[in-house]
From TrEMBL:
Superkingdom assignment: Eukaryota
Native organism: Alexandrium monilatum
Name under which the protein is recorded: Uncharacterized protein
Organism taxonomic ancestry: Eukaryota, Sar, Alveolata, Dinophyceae, Gonyaulacales
Annotated InterPro entries: Ankyrin_rpt, Ankyrin_rpt-contain_sf
SUPFAM superfamilies registered for this protein in UniProt: Ankyrin repeat
Keyword Ligase applies: no
Coiled coil: 35-62
An annotated Gene Ontology molecular function: ubiquitin-protein transferase activity
ANK repeat start-end pairs: 120-149
Length: 299
């Protein structure tokens, strides 16, 4: 230990006890003062960091609130039909009224030649892309529609396949998840494809899988997304445009009989898929879809 004295620095054994004691006391005081200063600086730094973190959290919360307030909140599956028909004017009115551009409308139909029902998801963007309405696609993209929503085909057994709006622009009337006998003619709607690619759209094969749905006998709360083919008890729904009410009432009185429908295909007993399709099945026009209800987009 070196001690400063009027005669200059000296070792501790070179000074008297009084000088040594004073030096030790002064050193202890200096160390204590240094510790206090360091603690004060640390506390000030932590307080400043906490304040910055709080300001950042408040800023994020405010940004999220502003986005939520700016985001359309009305879930109206009816705009899917407007997009499919190419009704730009009415669709623009609905979007300006606060309708969310990302919404799903359900297309229930029956497999040709049987009575097994399926449900296709359609977003306004996918429906417009399949129909080739470039003006509608542009309007929806301006309204911040998500081009990467994955639409799915589902049955009571779960999901089948998925497709995106970009897939629909390439396949047109043909379902993107089915075999396309005229694949050499893709893309069916090149102008729509260009619009979607410019917006960063991707095919379903490059996107994450859609959330799984509940299956027959299981309630909707047991899966990330409710199965549109099932009701809240996990039992098959019976859309009025596919199933005759009188026949359904009779079936409920006699539960063992096949679950038949009167449309071009169906849901229920798999053996009914061997039945021949209705005679007028070939008269069904392209894109003649019947939408029954809908939901928000699940991701």
């Amino acid at each position: 230990m070196i001690i400063d004295t009027p005669e200059g620095p000296k070792f501790e054994w070179e000074v008297d006890e009084e000088t040594l004691a004073a030096a030790i006391a002064e050193m202890s005081a200096s160390q204590e003062e240094a510790r206090e200063k360091m603690a004060a600086r640390k506390a000030a730094t932590e307080a400043a960091r906490a304040q910055l973190e709080q300001q950042a959290a408040e800023k994020r919360a405010l940004s999220a609130l502003e986005k939520a307030q700016a985001r359309p909140s009305i879930v109206d599956p009816g705009i899917v039909a407007l997009a499919e028909r190419g009704d730009v004017e009415r669709l623009a009115e609905r979007l300006q009224a606060g309708c969310c551009p990302d919404v799903i409308a359900f297309e229930f139909d029956l497999y040709p030649g049987g009575a097994r029902m399926f449900c296709n998801d359609w977003t306004p963007l996918a429906a417009a892309a399949a129909a080739g309405h470039a003006a509608v696609v542009g309007l929806l993209l301006e309204a911040r529609a998500d081009p990467d929503v994955v639409c799915c085909a589902s049955t009571s057994s779960g999901l089948y396949r998925g497709w995106s709006a970009l897939d629909c622009a390439r396949t047109g009337d043909a379902m993107p998840c089915e075999r396309d006998p005229q694949r050499d003619k893709q893309p069916r709607h090149p102008e729509v494809e260009r619009l979607l690619l410019a917006a960063g759209a991707r095919p379903a094969s490059a996107l994450p899988e859609a959330p799984r749905v509940n299956t027959y006998g299981y309630k909707p709360g047991e899966a990330p997304r409710p199965n549109p083919c099932l009701n809240e008890q996990g039992q098959p729904v019976r859309p009025a445009h596919l199933y005759d009410a009188a026949e359904e009432a009779e079936r409920q009185r006699h539960p063992g009989q096949p679950k038949l429908g009167f449309g071009t295909g169906g849901s229920g007993c798999p053996m009914t898929s061997m039945m021949p399709p209705p005679k007028d099945w070939h008269l069904k026009a392209p894109r003649e879809r019947t939408y029954t209800g809908g939901s928000k987009v699940y991701k």
